[in-house]
UniProtKB/TrEMBL annotation:
It comes from Clostridium acetobutylicum (strain ATCC 824 / DSM 792 / JCM 1419 / IAM 19013 / LMG 5710 / NBRC 13948 / NRRL B-527 / VKM B-1787 / 2291 / W). Keywords: Pyridoxal phosphate. The lineage of its organism: Bacteria, Bacillati, Bacillota, Clostridia, Eubacteriales. Transmembrane segments: none annotated. The keyword rRNA-binding does not apply. InterPro entries: DegT/StrS_aminotransferase (IPR000653), PyrdxlP-dep_Trfase (IPR015424), PyrdxlP-dep_Trfase_major (IPR015421), PyrdxlP-dep_Trfase_small (IPR015422). Gene3D superfamilies: Aspartate Aminotransferase, domain 1 (3.90.1150.10), Type I PLP-dependent aspartate aminotransferase-like (Major domain) (3.40.640.10). This is Predicted CDP-4-keto-6-deoxy-D-glucose-3-dehydrase.
């Protein structure tokens, strides 16, 4: 049985259409297709503004850099993050000269241990960067209750959670900004690509600037005249209003995004149907497995978290032998990675360590079907 972690979501017709587009397009660098895709994404996501960039990691980088400027943060400012997340949720915090503060995760929705989150908040806490892990929406009510009246900004990494909802509101709409990834194996793909979504116009403008060198010409046209008059001694085409990056995407990626977004809801429906069947299978082994069921899930993958490490090793080895690809749950406890060793004692994070030592996941996408899931159930019945 061949079961890949990721499948190519681009169908033949999309590839043929892309080839024709490349042949006939006047330009392939960022242009009208990017704006069109941003508008379609905003409509789908239910937000006012979106900024398309070249990856989900770049989306995180722009988000954190813009947050630092928007709130005038300094190197004493703390950003709370979960111990189980992707590396480029942490790297931008460090690159922006901010301080990451790690919190253990819970085993119900794989977001923060909400009691520990409460203890980690200090007067220096300026932001909480949530990861909606593997498509499981975090409990936004608990997070907002922890924050209370404190002046702490909510940021959301939704790179694995397109369409996930908390109380019928899509994740990415609860804070200042949300980030999304359109990498090859995610809910939809632009091959490489990412998006920042927000409802704050001033923050949106700052993200536009950060995406492309800090150039004023990246702003909506209605703002151009103001800056032309304000800086008359500088050629407007080369007017830099802030520091920035070059993390623009292309017309090619946006063209694919416009095609893929038409099928996104259908893709999510299949993924969730698969996950529900997988969950039902796992409940047969609740004495050996930690099962996760969260309302509003938009499943990225099918995670196994075993209560004993030895059983994890046996099951993973057998699945690999049968052609089922596996990988760690994100990066496990990120604090066990060499580049973060100096920050915290990883042994404090009980649940993150359990996920690190006893967890892995297999692929879930629109090409996984009931036949394959039944085979998986049969394999597990024999091993467990």
């Amino acid at each position: 049985m061949k079961w890949k972690l990721q499948e190519n979501a681009l169908v033949k017709e999309e590839i043929e259409s892309l080839a024709e587009f490349i042949k006939t397009a006047d330009r392939l660098t960022q242009g009208s297709k990017v704006k069109e895709f941003e508008a379609e994404w905003s409509k789908w996501q239910g937000c006012k503004y979106s900024v398309f960039v070249n990856s989900g990691s770049s989306a995180n980088l722009v988000l954190l850099s813009a947050v630092k400027d928007y709130y005038n943060l300094d190197n004493t400012s703390e950003v709370i993050v979960p111990a189980v997340t992707w590396v480029t949720n942490i790297s931008p915090i460090l690159q922006c000269g901010l301080k990451p503060v790690f919190v253990d995760v819970n085993l119900e929705d794989l977001s923060f241990d909400y009691e520990e989150l409460k203890k980690k908040i200090t007067d220096k806490t300026k932001a909480i960067f949530i990861t909606h892990l593997l498509g499981f929406p975090a409990n936004m009510e608990k997070i907002k209750n922890v924050i209370g009246e404190k002046d702490i900004v909510i940021l959301e990494d939704c790179c694995e959670s397109h369409g996930a909802k908390y109380k019928n509101i899509k994740v990415g709409n609860f804070g200042l900004g949300g980030t999304f990834s359109f990498y090859w194996g995610h809910h939809m793909t632009t091959i490489e690509g990412g998006m920042i979504s927000t409802n704050n116009e001033e923050f949106y403008k700052l993200c536009l600037l950060k995406r492309s060198h800090g150039l004023a010409r990246e702003l909506p046209i209605k703002y151009h005249e103001y800056y032309k008059n304000k800086y008359k001694d500088i050629d407007f085409k080369f007017l830099f209003l802030t520091d920035g990056f070059n993390v623009r995407s292309t017309e090619i990626n946006a063209f694919l995004g416009l095609r893929q977004i038409k099928n996104l809801d259908a893709f999510i429906e299949i993924r969730d149907k698969n996950y529900n069947m997988f969950f039902d299978t796992c409940t047969k082994y609740e004495d050996k497995l930690i099962t996760i069921k969260v309302e509003g899930t938009s499943s990225l993958a099918l995670p196994f978290i075993f209560k004993e490490k030895r059983l994890r090793e046996i099951v993973e080895k057998k699945l690999n032998e049968l052609g089922v690809e596996t990988r760690p749950i994100i990066s496990g406890n990120l604090l066990r990675q060499p580049f973060l060793k100096k920050y915290h004692n990883e042994n404090e994070f009980k649940n993150a360590n359990l996920i690190h030592d006893n967890g892995f996941y297999i692929g879930n996408n629109q090409f996984v079907d009931e036949i394959r899931l039944k085979k998986l159930e049969s394999i597990l019945d024999k091993i467990m």
